[in-house]
Amino acid sequence: MTKSELDKYKGVLENKQAELARVVRNRDGIAIEKSPDHLDEVQHATERELAIRNLDRDSNLLRSVRGALHRIEDGSFGVCLHCDEDISPKRLAAVPFAPFCIQCQELADRSQSSVGDNADEWFLNAA
Ligand SMILES: [Zn+2]
Question: Global pTM?
Fold first, then answer.
């Protein structure tokens, strides 16, 4: 990958990182909002649950974006973390923070879908 390509991805990722960091910070306020009214409380609980799910997703995304920026720094950007093959330029253009090539990502999605649900449940119970 050329220096100018890397710079382009770096710019895209830095923008994404700033945007996600802002969203995650703002959601913190919503997630802890409390109301004395019981009906409101139920409504808020639902909203809070939704906010936590979104927050969880955005936090994960933010982590991926940061990881990609880190890989730009250490020179491993664009290489699949799992199989060490180059990630296709087409995939990077669509998902610049992708840590895996499309084959490994599909494998990970399939094997992690149940784990992901459990982790989510654990997260909600812990909250
Ligand atoms: Zn791979």
Answer: 0.72
